[in-house]
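To: structure subgroup
Subject: Chain for Friday's discussion

All,

I'm putting the inputs and outputs inline so they're searchable in the archive.
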Amino acid sequence: MTLPPRRVGIVGNREKKGARALLPALVRWLRERDVKVLLERDTARGVRGMSGGLPLKSLVSRVDAILVLGGDGTFLSAAREAARADVPILGVNMGGLGFLTETAESDIYVALERLLAGDVEIEPRMMVEARVGPRGRVQWSQSGLNDVVVHQADESRMVRLDLRIGPTTIGTLAADGLIVATPTGSTAYSLSAGGPIVRPTIEALLATPICPHSLGFRPLLIGAGEKLRIRVGSTVNRARLTVDGQISRLLGAGDEVEIRRAKTRVSMLSLKHDSFYEVLREKLSWAAPPTRTRLKG
């Protein structure tokens, strides 16, 4: 950032005791440095003595930066709104794995000192957009930072999805569903379904089938400028489209979904200079040597 933020919005997960306990001191610390602090409405409700906050959609348009206290779920919901307002966002991990919330709770004041000094980097992250409706007639659309998933609405049934990439027909996927992830989302649901890890700054979309009924469908990396079109099979009673695991819409037989790179991006504030691969090693114990267990007998 070239200019230090003078107005900071705070979004927290009030279900996390650590976030509630941290807020009063954090707000006081920022105000002592002449920073105007605005709280998201639900965040303010979770703390005694804090005045009423603002809805997230209003908050992002009135601040220079967003500070998120929580886990990746809290970060994702805040990031979608921050992207619409083109406001940078910094995540503080209040427990859990936290791929998106890179700053540890114990490092928060060191991180804020650097933020207020402008000693941070802005890392643009591409988003993915889903559009529902026949081509040229969009009935519903939503963007996400991690992924778009088309999956079964009834857990006991698979879905059949007719797939096209651009003008090319790929075939029919019979599976529990299909994940279309951004590189940022490659370490989320896609990874658990067997997809590869992709460096977040690479421009691409990753299509990962969920429990496919054929070995012919493997995870596929798609160019960022390409569009994936999905048509729900005629034998499917109900399917569901889910964005970032938080926003969903029911789909029926014949419904069409276009998935592509979104026009908006998330501007993530980064204070670390660690290699992406070092982060992988830390978060996932990636490529760690096996531990030895001594048997007693």
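Points worth raising on Friday:
Residues 17-31 form the longest helix (15 residues).
The longest strand covers residues 256-270.

D.
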